[in-house]
Amino acid sequence: MTDHKIFMTEALRLAEFAATIGEVPVGAVVVKEGLIIGRGYNRREIEGQATRHAEIVAMEEASEAIGAWRLSGCTLYVTLEPCLMCAGAIYQARVDEVIFGALDAKAGACGSLYRIHEDARLNHRFLVHPGILEPESRELLQQFFRRRRQRRDGRVVEGARLEI
Q1: Which end of the chain is more exposed for a tag (fewer CB within 10 A), N or C?
Q2: pTM of the predicted model, to two decimals?
Q3: What DSSP character marks residue 122?
Q4: What share of the chain is helix, strand, coil (3-state, %, to 5)?
Q5: Residues 23, 33, 55, 61: which is the catalytic one?
C-alpha cells in the first residue's frame, strides 16, 4: 500500500467515526516527514461551530504538535475536497500539499468550483492530488446522506440526491 493510501485510510477511519456521532463523515490527517502530526474529523454539530471542519481540526492539532502556525513541509490528507474556508486556512497555514478523496461539486475549492491552490494572485500555492481512495470516500458520504434521508418507514425520500 502506498503512503498516500495509508494516510488516506487513516482519514477514512476518522470520517467513519464522525458518521457514528452524527457528523458529516469527513476525516483529515496532517503528515510531516512521514508521521501523522494532526488528526481531525467534522465536529460542527457536536461543538455547534461552523468552522469545525476536519481540515481545520487536523491543522490546529498539527500546529500544536510542532509549536508553530506554519505547516510548511506538511501534507494534508482529507476524504472530501476542501471547501473555500478550508482552502483558505490551508493557504494561510502554508501547507505544501493536499491529497483528497472525493470531489465536492457543490463546495469544492481545490478544483471543482475554485482553484485556490493555483491562484497566482496569492503569495502561496500548494499542490493538489484528487482521487486517492475516491470510491471509498464517496461511498461513505453517499451512505451517510442516504441514511439521513430515510423516512421512519424505511423508504428513501424521492428527489433527494447527494452530488459529490
Answers
A1: N
A2: 0.90
A3: S
A4: 40, 20, 40
A5: 55
Confidence at residue 159, expressed as pLDDT on a 0 to 100 scale: 44
Strand partners, 98: 76, 128
Which residue is associated with the grid cell 464522525?
18
112 burial type by CB count under 10 A (0-12 exposed, 13-18 middle, 19+ buried)? middle
Count of residues making up the chain = 164
CA–CA dist 93, 90 (Å, integer): 5
Tell me the one-letter amino acid at 116. I
Q: Decide if pLDDT at 161 tops 80.
A: no
Among the listed residues 47, 59, 54, the one whose alpha carbon sits nearest the alpha carbon of residue 27 = 54
Q: For residue 85, give the C-alpha cell.
A: 474556508
Chain centre distance of CA 152? 30
Annotation says 55 is catalytic: yes
Q: Tens digits of per-residue pLDDT, 52-104? A: 999 999 999 999 999 999 999 999 999 999 999 999 999 999 999 999 999 99
pLDDT of residue 155: 54
Sheet holding 74-80, edge to edge: 35-41, 27-32, 74-80, 97-102, 127-129
Tell me what pLDDT residue 96 has: 98
Interatomic CA distance for residues 74 and 70, integer angstroms = 9
